[in-house]
Design a protein that fits this description.
- The chain is an alpha/beta fold.
- The protein has five helices and four strands; from the N terminus they run βαβαβαβαα.
- Helix 4 packs antiparallel against helix 5.
- The N and C termini lie far apart (34 Å).
- The mean pLDDT is 97.
């Protein structure tokens, strides 16, 4: 099963997104990587790397980020981890994580999860 990492500048935000996604798909390996080691705001390569190690399988890992600099930090962590099937997913953090978790739970591939989570940005909340 594809694992999911939620990388955020905020520990509480990352943990909250993981909590919500796990409500929808409790069996999916999903890990929060938010904030710096001292709990201040920022992104930590060490935390993202640890989260990738925690959820990695041969099916891969989808990495979702909240803001631009989280992308750079996740890219560095991916280079350090140096395993196949690691994918940065460009999607809204909350909606994308929920969609990714549901898709992973249904056995979707990493590529399918990337596609569906990316489409989460087009979901209308108001009609």
């Amino acid at each position: 099963m594809v694992g999911i990492v939620v990388a955020s500048h905020s520990r509480r935000l990352a943990e909250g997104v993981v909590e919500l996604a796990q409500m929808m798909a409790p069996n999916v390996p999903i890990a929060a990587a938010g904030g710096l080691e001292d709990d201040s705001t920022g992104t930590s390569c060490k935390k993202i790397l640890g989260a990738m190690m925690q959820v990695y399988s041969d099916d891969g890992v989808a990495i979702l980020m909240d803001l631009g600099s989280a992308v750079m930090t996740a890219e560095i962590a991916m280079e350090l981890f140096n395993r196949p099937k690691l994918k940065l997913v460009d999607c809204p953090l909350v909606e994308g994580a929920v969609v990714a978790a549901i898709e992973a739970n249904q056995g979707a591939s990493l590529e399918e999860i990337e596609q569906r989570a990316s489409e989460a940005g087009t979901i209308k909340k108001l009609m």
